[in-house]
Amino acid sequence: MYRSVAAFALLTTAALSVSPARAATPGGARKIVIVVAHGAMLEDITSNDLPSFRRLFNMGAGAVMTTRTAGDPGKPERSETGSEAACLTLGAGARAIGGVETRAAFNSDEIVDDVRARVLYRGLTLRRPPDGSVVMTGTDGIKSNNAPLPYSIRIGLLGDSLRRAGLVTACVGNSDAFRAPHREAAAICMDSAGIVDTGDVGRGLVRRSPASPYGVETSVKALLRAFDRVAPRANLIIVDTGDFARADWYADNCTEARAREMRRSAMLRVDRVIGELLRRLDLRSSRIIFLSPGPSRWKPYEKRKLAPVVMAGEGIAHGLLVSGSTRRPGLITNTDLAPDILEYFRLPVPASAVGRPLTCAPRSDPAALLPALDSRLSLQNDRLALMRLAAIILTVAVILGTILRKRGAIAGRLALLPALAAPLMVLLPAAGSYDATTSGAILAGAVVVVFLLLALLRMRAVRALLSLSAILCGAVVFDLTRGGAWLTDSPFSYSIAEAARFYGLGNEMMGSLIGAGAVVVFGVLGPAVGSVRFGRRLRTALCLACFGALAVLIGAPGFGANTGGALAGLATAGAALAVLADGKMNAKRWLVAAAVPIAVFALFLALDRLRGTGGESHQTRAFQMLSGGRAAEFGLIVARKVGMNLKLLQSSLWTKLLLACAGALIYLRATGGAIERPEWSRQAVKVIAAGAFAALIFNDSGVVAAATCLVYAWSVEMVTQWRVLSSE
Asked: Which residues on adjacent β-strands are paired with residue 321?
């Protein structure tokens, strides 16, 4: 008897001693539940007859999320629905490539092709899965698909990080359709071996329903029972509601009215699931997140790239979600989710996760604010078609103007088109937010009005070029000092919805700014001070000051935040110094040319560090990699930028403009050798050419910046030659 009492006491003591160790794990008893509805759009969840969603918005924070992945749209066999790559990206914290392999998740004891899934998994991977787990049988294929990516990516990063910390992952539900598994939601929380600790993604969660898409629907009762089984021990639970994904995929196979009815019915069921989960969760020590991994595939939404996210619970204030990646309240990226989950569980964020943890910006009614933001960003993305059209028009103008340089005033007017297009693209948002067709009509009308105005004022081509260049510089500087509102909505800018860039100065406008700045400095300021005493020295100092200020404006974190553009601006300043020295660069000038870029870059880093961890820009993060002994990762960034440049050089419309400008300049210089050009013209062309070359080298889409910069050199050469020829 005494032995039994002693044994009981020993076991009790051991149990008590183990319990605190479990509570001391980084996540403790915290829990995150992510409700997934593939293809849901913001308007699907903001209706007043969805009480659970209304409750989420009233007590939590919302955002629209960029959904860009590394999936290749030219290879649909790799990602038929897009949700595969989207789920992999959420779990990896970096853009991933999807594929049919990502759909193949099974309960370990589920029968697949007449064998147990665990047996199939072991045969394919030579790894033995734990009992009760969910297994992704195509994990090795997923890794193979992502191996060629020119950057570091860890498939299953989120699951690995939680597993190492002793936290448990779970996935329940599926989106099975086409009589085949569609269980890619498991990729959000699986580890690098393709294993989710526990869950239920089996066929028993769906039931026959002839009126539903593909004849099946999720059994809400079965889904909730599966949730209840895993909830006591799981820290991260993915709940795939299934019905909305099937409604979204089926929508193009029926009438629009029927598609809307199916989507509505499916979302009501999702709302019911969320309501039941809210009853089960204590939001003082847990979070619930609703999200769509990717945008809708339905044709009415084919131009929409943003998906909704709503989050409530511990640490979430009422308002809009904010990410250090975007710096825009209400807009986050799909790569932010993994870092945010890891921070919630007080775990370190691996370097390969490129996103940033989320914060909240207090707002009174996020459900009312987000649709306007979504519409604005979607329209801006639609208007980017005008940028491609501009590249074509400018290329034709360069070729046609060069051919007609001796034949009438049309050559001089064509030479003004680049200098006219850029400021109009900046100022277009002031007219309102319109689709591509309406915006194109406004731009065309503005071009006609400006040309008529120039004719009425009898302004010569040279003076018009100088004036238009000055207007562009003034408009960009003014807009950057007030946060870049015009540049954000400009068609001649980056795509926020495509996650190309979220703030600062894009390469399209950066190249134009450098080219226009050189025209203003050499064509306006240089001649103005060249005639006064000590004019040459004053002109040199003024040029360096202007180009230095331009580089700071382009690269400063709170303004342009474009490091490659800043380096191009500094290279332009060095070229200006060499040109003004007439080839006589002494040791002092070389020292200045080398010291100034270093000092400016150090200033950028210092300013950026003031933002704190999570708010710094990419340039600071890259520097931290290099200084922290992670040279290999820094090398991957460089390789990715070089790869992007090479890809764009082969396929971009801007390459054609760049080649047209370079060829036209060579032709104009070769055939116009006897023409006496003004000194400022010769200097400006040389400096702009140097700036265009630097922009090409220092930027990951440098061909864009190089083309928009070099076209100003062509304009200068054209208007000066045309002026001489017309006067003769």
From this structure: 360
Residue pLDDT, tens place only, 348-379: 998 889 899 999 999 999 999 999 999 999 88
* Cβ count within 10 A of residue 29: 11
Residue whose pair of structure tokens reads 């495509």 in the numeric block: 498
Which contiguous run of DSSP H or E holds residue 65?
strand 61-66
CA–CA separation, 157 vs 290, rounded Å?
21
The SS3 call for residue 103 is: helix
The phi and psi torsions of 551 (rounded to 5 degrees) equal -65, -40
- Measured CA to CA in angstroms, residue 274 lies from 172, 466, 522, 694 at distances of 14, 61, 64, 53
From CA 51, how far away is CA 45, in angstroms rounded? 10
Question: Residue 270: its pLDDT value, please?
Answer: 97
Report the Cα–Cα distance between both ends of the chain, in Å, rounded. 122
Instruction: Judge contact between 469 and 516, C-beta under 8 A.
Output: yes
| pLDDT, tens digit (0-9, with 9 covering 90-100), for 465-484 | 999 999 999 999 999 988 88
Answer left, alpha or beta for residue 582, where phi above 0 means left and psi between -120 and 50 means alpha: left
Amino acid code (one letter) for 298: W
Strands (E), 263-388: 286-291, 306-313, 319-323, 331-333, 358-362
d(Cα 60, Cα 58) in Å, to the nearest integer? Answer: 6
pTM: 0.85
DSSP 188: G
What is the average pLDDT across 46-67?
95
* CB-based contact 476:513 (threshold 8 Å): yes
| CB 58 within 8 Å of CB 318 | yes
Q: How far is CA 596 from CA 536, 545, 549, in A?
A: 21, 11, 11
**And the tokens for 588?**
């002092």
Q: Are strands 236-240 and 31-36 parallel, antiparallel or unpaired?
A: parallel
Sequence-separated (6 or more) residues with CB below 8 Å from residue 515: 469, 688, 691, 692, 708, 709, 710, 711, 712, 713
DSSP per-residue codes, 543-584: HHHHHHHHHHHHH-TTTT--HHHHHHHHHHHHHHHHHHTTT-
Amino acid at 345: F
Closest CA to 492 of 421, 417, 548: 421
Residue 446: HSE in the Cβ half-sphere, 13 Å Cα cutoff: 19
pLDDT in tens, 511-549: 999 999 999 988 887 666 555 545 567 777 778 788 888
- How many CA atoms are closer than 13 Å to the CA of 115, on its beta-carbon side? 9
Residue 150 zone, left/alpha/beta (φ > 0; ψ -120 to 50; rest): alpha
Provide the residue type at 123 as one letter.
G
Whole-angstrom Cα distance, residue 280 to residue 270?
16
The answer to whether 510 touches 695, Cβ cutoff 8 Å, is yes
CA distances to 38, 83, 162, 304, 370 from 270, in Å? 11, 18, 27, 22, 20
